Amino acid sequence: MAIRAKTNNLIQIRPLTGRRLANSEHNRQEMKNGATVLTSKPQRLVFELTNACNLNCLMCGRNSATFELTRFNSEWFKKFEPIMSDIEEVTLMGWGEPTIHPQFKEMLQYLHERGIRKYFCTNGMRLDVLKDAIFDYEVDVFAVSMDGADAKTNEFLRRGLNYQKVIEGLKAITNEKALRGLNFPHINFVMTMMKSNIRQLPDMVDLAAELGLNEVKGVFLTAFSENLLEETLFDDMDLVRYCFGQAEERAAKLGILLKLPHQRGEDPAGDAAHKPCFTAWRDFFLGSDGYVRACMSSPEKLFHIDQYPDFESMWNSREYQEWRAQVNVPGKMCPSCGRCYQSSFANWNKEHAFIQIDTEFSPKWEK
């Protein structure tokens, strides 16, 4: 059976320190209570290292957005130094390809030296040059975006991808992991499911098992432009149901963790705008242009990192307090939350989760 319920717990690869365990439990309690001023720290920092990419995928929202290319300033790490012993994880991902940041390896080293769990999401094109760093700095989790189980499908959808290069990079890492007898890195595929490729979902499970990966995660395509409307699965739940069933059978047989969204009409969010959102409590998201947002799928800018002198003043700023007070309240949440398409919190009963044409769906990144 696939996992469909998002939890407020992050994936655990290795034991946490007592301090981090205590903070995370405190954070979950404040989240449950709906506190707007928090005495806990976030469980996770999410840093978008760049909005640039070395691919040009057909379905990417970057093709429907206008923006300046931006890059994360490593000096911003200094503002987070006082909480590095409290947080569980730093996730390096956003609207671009994080591994092309020129200081990516140095960032992994910095986090490793502070004993923080490290997670990044990548298109896989630089895995060959990152292999040593992944083991030297003990990367805990990484995800590889892959939208089919063969070269033809991937190289059509993910323009600029060299499928064989990604596969060889993954094999080298999983072979090294097995040789060392390690349980990390936890590696998963992330597949954007659409009419063109969803029949390959079961084969993605097979491919993950063949390569020694741990998990396959499927997310529905959200169409940001008219040319993608025919690819959305909003009106094709029979096909979705069949492919999900086949993938679940193979995952159970092969021991692959499978994470899938709720099908339309079966999402427990019912008629709500989105599932209960906890990103404004659990996570702290910083974009590559220095603007803090509640999550990577929100265009709403809370403030620039330079607006406040330290983390504590940012975390309990007026903007964050207002966001926490409104994000789950019908009639009070901001318009972009009212049409949420974030893969973990979207209500898949709603058309707006699948279609975001002529909406403000992405940030306006500024240099």
TrEMBL record:
InterPro entries: 4Fe4S-binding_SPASM_dom (IPR023885), AdoMet-like_SPASM_containing (IPR034391), Aldolase_TIM (IPR013785), Elp3/MiaA/NifB-like_rSAM (IPR006638), MoaA_NifB_PqqE_Fe-S-bd_CS (IPR000385), rSAM (IPR007197), rSAM_sf (IPR058240), Sulphatase_maturase_rSAM (IPR023867). GO terms for molecular function: 4 iron, 4 sulfur cluster binding; metal ion binding; oxidoreductase activity. Residues 39-257 form the Radical SAM core domain. CDD domains: Radical_SAM (cd01335), SPASM (cd21109). One of its GO terms (biological process) is molybdopterin cofactor biosynthetic process. This is Radical SAM domain protein. Its cofactor is [4Fe-4S] cluster. SMART domains: Elp3. The keyword Iron applies. Keywords: 4Fe-4S, Iron, Iron-sulfur, Metal-binding, S-adenosyl-L-methionine. It comes from Desulfitobacterium hafniense (strain DSM 10664 / DCB-2). Pfam families: Radical_SAM, SPASM.
